[in-house]
Design goal:
- β2 and β3 form a beta hairpin.
- Strands 1, 5, 6, 7, 8, 9, 10, 11, 13 and 14 form a ten-stranded mixed beta sheet that branches. A two-stranded antiparallel sheet has the order 2-3. It has a two-stranded antiparallel ribbon with strand order 4-12.
- The longest helix has 42 residues.
- About 5% of the residues have low confidence.
- It has eleven helices and 16 strands.
- The chain is an alpha+beta fold.
Length: 397
């Protein structure tokens, strides 16, 4: 009979104590895995939402502002030396060091036009990248041709026109190709057409009023890209839209710190459960250990038997704890995100448990952590068993 056989036989004979050890380790591993997976899911959910925000870098012409104040009374301000960006200059953005992180660059030209009896803001955009920069748009109809326009929901209501009808924009005839459903933003009051058409109507050939840049991804150095774009466009002001992003990431950072504290506490409790249970098991087997020593078992053999028992239970607890942690994350995630467990959108075709992808690296780490915790907590009971005097142990028979 090998030492492994003896360990397995002891586990079968003392199922209650083995169950206590198993439960302590499963709770510890499941808590750590659950919190790690939940934090990852929340972070991925934030980045997924960022991808839906569209543009996160704005490039606007540089202006000098003169603030007017007299006697403590603010009289507003005057903007002067405004020079619009040349369209050909915008191509320099693609030469920056992090150009590979650019998802889309969308030039925009803006101007006020007369449509019927209303003054409305006209925007000329590049519809080839509009789905990236404005992914929230839902269009009734279709994207316009060169002589077509998209109307915001409020603009369509004010003008009293719908899809397929024709309108005059500063005396030029355009067909309404589509109406953008309510967005809750300024887009609802605007008229959109192709960049070239708007430049022609507004008399701004080759010029743009601003540019929207989409560079949102998990590892995109947005702040560095702002500096790089500023260097290639010295006559423009470049700014990152990151207030919402930073606030959400700070909240996740606090949750991560809280998770570490909870994990450490649960792991400590689990280790104590294993230590107490294994120590009690060793004390109950005093006579058995005395017989082993009497028939020739060395101290190292006794230590290995106890550690084998702990290792077998710990490995099984690691597997069960990992799966339990994923299941717990699946149940808790809807309370922390707005996307119904976020579906961990990036996992692609990988196997998943309830929408949460199975991470082989995390699974191996969970099993390894469980085994390490079980062995460390069982080290003292194993040494206690090895130090027993065979004569004293046999007298207990």
């Amino acid at each position: 009979m090998t030492l492994r056989d003896i360990a397995l036989l002891n586990l079968r004979r003392r199922r209650a104590k083995a169950s206590f050890v198993l439960a302590g380790l499963v709770i510890s591993v499941a808590t750590v895995v659950g919190l790690v997976t939940l934090t990852r899911a929340m972070t991925d959910d934030v980045y997924h939402k960022l991808d839906q925000y569209g543009a996160n870098i704005l490039v606007v012409p540089h202006t000098e502002n003169l603030s007017l104040n007299y006697g403590g009374l603010s009289l507003g301000g005057v903007a002067f030396e405004v020079e619009e960006i040349r369209e050909e200059e915008l191509a320099r953005i693609h030469s920056i060091r992090n150009a590979g992180n650019l998802a889309a660059v969308g030039p925009v030209v803006l101007g006020v036009v007369q449509v019927q009896d209303h003054k409305i803001l006209l925007a000329g955009i590049d519809f080839a990248v509009a789905h990236i920069l404005k992914p929230w748009w839902q269009i009734e109809g279709e994207a316009p041709a060169e002589n077509g326009v998209l109307l915001g929901s409020d603009a369509a209501r004010r003008l009293g026109v719908g899809v397929g009808e024709r309108i005059e924009v500063d005396g030029w005839d355009f067909q309404v190709s589509g109406v953008i459903q309510v967005t809750g933003s300024q887009d609802d009051q605007m008229v959109f057409t192709h960049l070239g058409s708007a430049q022609f109507v507004l008399g701004k050939a080759g010029r743009i009023s601003m540019a929207e840049v989409a560079a949102l991804c998990m590892d995109c150095p947005v702040e560095e890209m702002v500096v790089q774009i500023s260097e290639v466009l010295p006559g423009a002001d470049v700014m990152a839209i990151q207030a919402v992003v930073k606030g959400r990431m700070e909240a996740i950072g606090h949750f991560q710190a809280f998770s570490l504290g909870v994990s450490a506490l649960v792991v400590l409790v689990g280790a104590l459960v294993v230590l107490v249970t294994m120590t009690g098991s060793v004390r109950e087997r005093t006579s058995e250990i005395g017989i082993f020593r009497a028939i020739g078992f060395r101290k190292s053999h006794v230590v290995r038997v106890v550690l084998l028992e702990a290792g077998i239970v710990s490995a099984f607890a690691g597997v069960v704890g990992y799966l339990a942690g994923l299941a717990g994350t699946r149940l808790a995630l809807p309370f922390f995100t707005d996307t119904a467990a976020a579906e961990m959108h990036h996992h692609g075709g990988h196997a998943a448990l309830g929408g949460i992808p199975l991470d082989p690296a995390l699974a191996v780490a969970a099993v390894g952590f469980s085994v390490l915790l079980g062995l460390l907590a069982s080290a003292y009971p194993a040494l206690l068993a090895a130090r027993m005097d065979p004569n004293e142990a046999l007298r207990a028979l």
